[in-house]
Amino acid sequence: MARTIMHIDLDAFFVSVEQALNPELRGKPVVVGGRPDRRGVVASASYEARGFGLHAGMPLTTASRLCPQAIFIEGSFPRYRDASQRFMTILADFSPYLEPVSLDEAYLDATGFESIYGSIHQMAVAIKQRIKNELGLCASVGIASCKVVAKVASELSKPDGLLEVATGNELSFLAPLPIAKLPGIGRKTEQILDGLGINTIGKLSITPSSVLKSHFGASGEFLHRFAKGIDDRKVEPPSAAKSISRETTFGKDTRDRSLLKATLRYLSERVGSELRQRGKQARCVTLKLRYADFTTITRSHTLSQTSHTDQIIFDTGTKLLKKELTQGKQPIRLIGIGVSNLIEPGRQLALLDSSAQRLEQLNRAIDRIRKKYGFTAIQTGRTLLLKDIFPSGDEGYTLHTPSLSR
Ligand code: TTP
Ligand code: MG
Questions:
Q1: Rounded to a whole number, what is the distance in angstroms from the first to the last CA of the chain?
Q2: Neighbours of 21 (CB within 10 A)
């Protein structure tokens, strides 16, 4: 069945939020990223600044050389997170089939919505209008039969754009564009394709997929399909998980406290990292134990202040475990830890407290290293013990439950 997909992306997002708050910045070359004498790069540049060649990722020193009159702002992430939430709330009013992709970007499945709004074009106009009225921001919208074409269309229409690619015209729309416009083509892929004499999406679409596969492996097939405007990825609303938990069954039932605590620490880190990745905080921590005779118990504790740090999850789990060990006498077969009562943090009161702030920073630093080098690239002292017990793969230990494969 033919689909209608919309891609919505805010223009010069960080900068536009600043301009909406401070009228003196409007119509001027503005950069969010920091002071020009600092190390660092441009995060967002206003379209006026782009006229001087400024763009995201450019070193601030270069930016100030190219455009000395530009206004450089540090920016404030909580402001952008707040604007992003309000943006997504507006979109959710138009369709429940909404997939946020980043802070300022989302796909919306609008198949069949013509009957409500008169046309999809009118629906997009209404969306843009509400974003303008309520947030003071400009959104650019691409409309097409699939995600990849909708995304290229919104990008091409910027700023303050609205571009609809009629079904059947995907190939002719994409063909003349330079390959860098196709999502998924980074600088390196672009260079390789350029070396092969492929510089437009049209040329890419007629390159045999065997050639692309030999250079890019499985992703070569995707590139080929995208270049033809074929993309059957669905718009997938994020699963609203109500809890996050990790558990594992031991090879041999145990009452060894160091092993139990090491495993609990590891599981807490897994839970914590997912919690932070989802941008949530938890109110409740739950320990799960299964004894040798398969009796399973769960014990929960409600935190006085919501948290998303490994330490708090682990400390709470440890207290629950200690209590349980003084009662049950059987060896333990399975241990698990979970968090629930998840909330989207608004104002972070905990951050006023400097020790909570340090913990949060430490966790973020660990997350960054793990994202780059793998989960066990960095280990806390307590979990080192697990190294000798569980086999280690690229992504860390291989424990026995599927929930640990992530
Ligand atoms: P983008 O949508 O890529 O950029 P943009 O909204 O500033 O401009 P455009 O009109 O082209 O959409 O990214 C959204 C925000 O994400 C951007 O305002 C700042 C942030 N960001 C960074 O912090 N670093 C980066 O390298 C990029 C690309 C974006
Ligand atoms: Mg944007």
A1: 34
A2: 12
108 beta partners: 6, 98
Nearest atom (ligand 1) to Cα of 159: 10
Active-site residue identified among 18, 99, 105, 269: 105
Assign 400 a pLDDT band (cuts: 50, 70, 90). very low
Q: List beta partners, residue 200.
A: 178
User: Annotated catalytic, 105?
Assistant: yes
Counting beta carbons within 10 angstroms of the beta carbon of residue 270, is it exposed (0 to 12), middle (13 to 18) or buried (19 or more)?
Answer: buried
Place of tokens 């349980």: 324
- pTM score, two decimals? 0.66
Neighbours of ion ligand 2 (CB under 5 A): 9-10, 13, 104
Dihedral, CA of residue 103, residue 107, residue 108 and residue 109, to nearest 10 = -160
Cβ atoms of 134 and 90 within 8 Å: the answer is yes
Residue-wise pLDDT tens digits, 314-350: 999 999 999 999 987 899 999 999 999 888 775 444 4
Q: Which of 7, 8, 13, 158 to mutate to test the pocket of ligand 1 (most atoms within 8 A of CB)?
A: 13
CA distance linking residue 279 with residue 267, whole number of Å: 19
Ligand 2 mean position, distance from CA 12 (Å): 5
Tell me which residue of 105, 125, 101 sits closest to 113, measured CA to CA.
Answer: 125
Q: Atom 7 in ligand 1: which residue has the minimum CA distance? A: 12
Residues in contact with ligand 1 by the CB-under-6-Å rule are: 9-14, 43-44, 56-57, 103-105, 158
Tokens 């897994």 correspond to: 270
Ligand 1, residue 14: give the atom nearest the CA.
Answer: 18
Q: Residue 351 above 60 pLDDT?
A: no
Which of 127-131, 351-355, 370-374 is most confident? 127-131
pLDDT in tens, 135-144: 999 999 999 9
Could you say which ligand is closest to the alpha carbon of residue 46? 1
- pLDDT tens-digit series, residues 5-36: 999 999 999 999 999 999 999 999 999 998 88
- Contact between 2 and 167 under an 8 Å Cβ cutoff? The reply is yes
Q: Give the Cα separation of 4 and 145 in Å (integer).
A: 5
